[in-house]
Amino acid sequence: MNRRPAGRAAEPLPEPFTGPPAEPAGPPADGEVDPYVPAYGRVDLTNCDTEPIHVPGAVQPHGFLLAVDRGTHEVVVASASTSALLGREATGLPGLPLRDVLGPRLAGEVLALDAADQVSEPLHTTADLAAGPGVEVDVVLHVSGERLVVEVEPVGSSPGFSPVSYRSTRAAVGRLTEAPSVEALVQQLAHEVRTLTGFDRVMVYRFDARWNGEVVAEDRRDDLNPFQGLHYPASDIPVQARRLYEVNWTRLIADVDYVPARLHPVLDPGTGAPLDLSHSVLRSVSPIHVEYLRNMGVGASMSVSLVLDGRLWGLIACHHYSGPHRPSYDARSAAEFLGQTASQLIASRERADERDDALHAQDLLAALVTGTTGSGGDPFANLMADRRLLDLLGASGAALADGGRLVTLGAVPDPPVLRRISALLARGDGAPTFTDHLASLDAGLSAVERVASGALRVGLGADRWLLWVRPEQQEVVDWGGDPRNKEIAAAEGPGVRLSPRKSFEKWREVVRGRSVAWERWQAVAADRLRSQLTSLVLGRARDQIAVAESLQRAVVLEEPPHLPGLDVLARYRPASGSELGGDWWDALELPGGRVAVVVGDVSGHGVHAAAAMAQLRTASRAYLLEGHGPAAALDRLDALAGSVISEHMATAVIAVLDPATGAGHLASAGHPPPLLVHRGGASLLPVTPRPLLGVATGRAEDAAVRIPDGGVLVLYSDGLVERRGVSLDDTIEQLRVAAGRSADLPLGELADSLMTVVPGAEGDDTTLLLVRCAPATR
Length: 778
What we know:
- The chain has four domains: 48-55 and 158-338, 2-Layer Sandwich (Beta-Lactamase), CATH 3.30.450; 59-154, Beta-Lactamase (2-Layer Sandwich); 375-473 and 514-539, Beta-Lactamase, CATH 3.30.450.270; 542-777, 4-Layer Sandwich (Phosphatase 2c, domain 1), CATH 3.60.40.
- It contains 18 helices and 30 strands.
- Helix 15 (607-625) runs antiparallel to helix 16.
- It is flat.
- Residues 1-31, 43-48, 486-504 and 506-510 have low confidence and may be disordered.
């Protein structure tokens, strides 16, 4: 079940680097600023990984940039390209109203978008430029710090690509959607982007866990050598460049021989800092990257990010070899849209693949646990005699430590080595930890790499752990040039100019000392087995059960705290035959005089349900005390629950109220609907619940609520209304009718009545929480 993804690696071609480019035609005259050196100074391969490429102090000259004060609407910073494109020197523009620079009509359109908070909307319009009146332009806006950044690019693009239309883009999206696999999807993506933009070569790169990159798809001119299958080292793209790719999805270099257009002034006079161009479409790129492209024979390039769940997955890298190339802004925007669509499709396909693997592992885990616990005798000995333990994670060997005992299965190193590996991977909470390169943790472990180059560990409590190992798997990697270029140059000494490599001939390497990489779903399967084994261990230790019961009693209070302005009453009934359940309730005073009340439920019984309940209750208090509303607190609980409750399910309902008015908001996550008891009856509150906690989908919504004079808010767990063979809607309606008939009862009597109104309670915890505004507060 180790489905290997469609190539993982990193790439060098798209954008960020540092270091002086090929020298300009001649040195700058005395007193002039060298336009080829960024505002932050010269760079080379010794400092490119710290180069602040988001503040180069210059833009590419095929457009011009103005930074505008959002209060006064005056120009603060201008690019030198205004001289050629606008017919006005940049040095004379700071301090002028934007309308005096762009003209009243265009300036009015720009400022109207800013006033309406719609700066993400580009403008396609006309402007009076040096080339003449009424020139078609694309205007792109964004906010950088305190400034509105206005970038103007005359329309006009290189030939060689198809016209962009809604219909053509929609058709391209349809073809991407129909791709049967990630491999087919990225190949279709390369073709669609090349058709849109007209570049000579379009490649799709995928990054691996170490940010090396592999060309996993390409569409190219027939006369070009193929790059597909080549790998590129992580050093080709510094970390700050990868960060920019996650912020700004598209980057165009229309001409690698461009002369950067300096910003005037370089430092914003209002802030004393350089203008942050992270979101700029014209930002001048690192001179080392320009040199890198020249060394490859590239005349123009463009990149589009592929981002999955907020993390850079890969890049669409476009190269042009026959001179400058500037696709229209519409074509670039369409390419970015295809990149965003492809990112979602790739994420969906990978999740589907992972789900298939995880479902298979779940079936295997269930059989493994049944065999371990159902055959009698020592469960740990049973486990270590079952080869399905190795099949579960695709391992070649396993070891289990239980105090001073060490039991092994399959091919493993000697016991001292196993204990050393376990110590290196150990973490306090016992959660899964893994590596495919043990020698990186301890060079001495290279001696056992033929048996154990990779390992995955889970903890089972004090002096107990389970470890899986995998042997070395040698891999032949074809690099696009020697990946050790930077290290070689540094070793040759200060007399050697540290510049990007000039050779991109295929360079073959045999990678040794690594195992097959561990997949995320395998860590999840190991963690589920850990939960099962931990339960087994706890089940054999009555003293630990007693500790857990004490924990639950400490968490689920017998009486609510005194809350000014509110009468709060709670009832809790444990499941029959078990003091360990997953229900909880809470009531606490918040800053500003508001009050929060909560009822939650973790499915199941026993130590794990109680422990998960305690963690969720503690987290909900923290989120509410931090100032989050009910919906926001539930969304944060959902993110936490995925790692806390594992195989359990959880629900919760939260209300935040003002005791003085009885008004507030509530939100629900898969929980039974609250009731509002009032004079004349009771009604279900219209709350749209988000899905169960821990499923990592959907969002909660706040709903307004107001407790009327004499009214009661009723929150409860499903143990109050859920009955086998009876519709939940029917039992909730039964509860509502009974609550309406008892509206005038004191809270204690109302609670006693509601706890028994639905007969046939069956083996589940039951929680009931009643809230009434004290009469004195009205």
